[in-house]
UniProtKB/TrEMBL annotation:
InterPro entries, A to Z: Ala_Aminotransferase, Aminotransferase_I/II_large, PyrdxlP-dep_Trfase, PyrdxlP-dep_Trfase_major, PyrdxlP-dep_Trfase_small
Positions in coiled-coil regions: none
Its EC number(s): 2.6.1.2
Protein name: alanine transaminase
Organism of provenance: Barrientosiimonas humi
CDD domains given in the database record: AAT_like (cd00609)
Signal peptide: none
Names of the cofactor(s): pyridoxal 5'-phosphate
Protein keywords: Aminotransferase, Pyridoxal phosphate, Transferase
Gene Ontology MF: a single term: pyridoxal phosphate binding
Keyword 4Fe-4S belongs to the record: no
Primary enzyme class: transferase
Family from the record: Belongs to the class-I pyridoxal-phosphate-dependent aminotransferase family.
Length: 411
């Protein structure tokens, strides 16, 4: 027999020490274990419309299929010309001056672009202001790139608006950038024009770059208007706007997102050179999906039918919000947009010490998966996020399961 020799344990890199992404973490592993045992699990942990009966606009699918034969090769690393033109024109139409195809990067979803931008931008020890709660890729990607995510508070008692004083109090000489997520995941808050202006003013005053994640820009309720941060950043604040097809066009699986760079680009030439290097190193984004971008941004916007009374996104969101508030000891701010509810469990009623354990308990007892609030870098174990994508009937049944489970936990 051959001597196997010393067996070396292969460990993950130290770079991952502070990196978490709980939405698909141990809670999902446990859900998959239960599925393997034969249980049917209702998964309300991921904002992915397709499994809940949402279909992409037909023209988008048709466009991709049409272009498949000619999409076999790599494209330009920044993206195909028609997609970048469409994105540039989209922002020009919204009042952004001085933007061109050169300022647009197409990526495999916003996710890839967030990671690339932070790798290109962050030096070890740089502090980046990230909202709490946040979409956890932001915190994870800052840590992975050697930076320090510094969380600023979004205030639940004030409609989950960012606390401007808290932001200012956390700015140090190491602070380099401010992340804004509007409309917000997980809270569903949509920021007023004044609030966006105030956030930009803080960035201006402290010479911060703004990363504005606007992937839910078209999912806003009650006739609210979404305000692009870049519209107020002017010529003197560098603003990187992220958006894409995943949510508004219901094609998360196509992996199509974009980055629009605006403001004093002449001061950012070195950074942009670094970003271009990283874009080159990964060749290009998925080419067939890039062809869908021009079609998506032009023409009829079917998302508009989903966000008004009678439309599925609106009705489901409002149903979830109302039913959650009917549960004793549960309170939920009314979502103004996006695809989630982020309810609070009164700690006097539900003395939960570990919210991930709470989620796993709910999963095992009720075969329903939500995500714990600390997974969104919320500091207390007293929230969870529910995806509001199932139809009203399924959502009602899911919230009944939550209510039943909570009844067993009441102090
Ligand atoms: N940003 C936010 C706030 C999100 O909620 C998500 C996905 O849920 C993303 C970015 C990533 O989107 P994409 O599918 O474009 O990678």
């Amino acid at each position: 027999m051959c001597d196997p020799g010393p067996v070396r344990e292969i460990r993950q890199s130290d770079k991952l020490k502070n990196v978490r992404y709980d939405v698909r973490g141990p809670i999902l592993v446990e859900a998959q274990r239960l599925e393997a045992e034969g249980h049917r699990i209702l998964k309300l942990n991921i904002g992915n419309p397709a499994p809940f009966g949402f279909e992409a606009p037909e023209a988008i699918v048709a466009d991709m299929v049409h272009h498949l034969p000619e999409a076999q090769g790599y494209s330009d690393s920044q993206g195909i010309y028609s997609a970048r033109t469409a994105v540039a024109q989209y922002y020009q139409g919204r009042g952004l001056r001085d933007t061109s195809v050169e300022d647009v990067f197409i990526g495999n979803g916003v996710s890839e672009l967030i990671s690339m931008v932070l790798q290109a931008f962050v030096d070890d020890g740089n502090e980046i202001l990230v909202p709490a709660p946040d979409y956890p890729l932001w915190t994870g990607a800052v840590s992975l790139s050697g930076g320090v995510p510094v969380h600023y508070l979004c205030d639940e008692s004030n409609g989950w608006q960012p606390d401007l004083e808290d932001i200012e109090s956390k700015i140090t000489e190491n602070t380099q950038a401010l992340v804004i997520i509007n409309p917000n995941n997980p809270t569903g808050a949509v920021y007023s024009e004044q609030l966006v202006r105030d956030l930009v003013e803080i960035a201006r005053k402290h010479d911060l770059v703004i990363f504005s994640d606007e992937i839910y820009e078209k999912i806003v309720f009650d006739g609210l208007q979404h305000h692009h941060t870049a519209s107020f950043a002017g010529d003197d604040v560098l603003c990187l706007t992220f958006s894409g097809l995943s949510k508004a066009y219901r094609v998360c699986g196509y992996r199509a997102g974009w980055l629009m760079i605006s403001g004093p680009k002449h001061l950012a030439e070195d950074f942009l050179e670094g970003l271009t290097l990283l874009a080159n190193m990964r060749m290009c984004a998925n080419v067939p999906a890039q062809h869908a971008i021009q079609t998506a941004l032009g023409g009829y916007q079917s998302i508009d039918d989903l966000i008004v009374p009678g439309g599925r996104f609106y009705e489901q969101s409002m149903t979830a919000y109302k039913l959650l508030n009917d549960i004793p000891g549960v309170s939920c701010e009314r979502p103004q947009g996006a695809l989630y509810c982020f309810p609070r469990l009164d700690p006097d009623v539900y003395p939960i010490e570990d919210d991930e354990e709470f989620v796993i308990g709910l999963l095992r007892a009720k075969k329903l998966l939500v995500t714990h609030g600390t997974g969104f870098n919320w500091p207390e174990p007293d929230h969870f996020r529910l995806v509001t994508l199932p139809d009203v009937e399924m959502l009602t049944e899911a919230i009944e399961r939550i209510a039943d489970h909570l009844a067993t936990l009441r102090a």
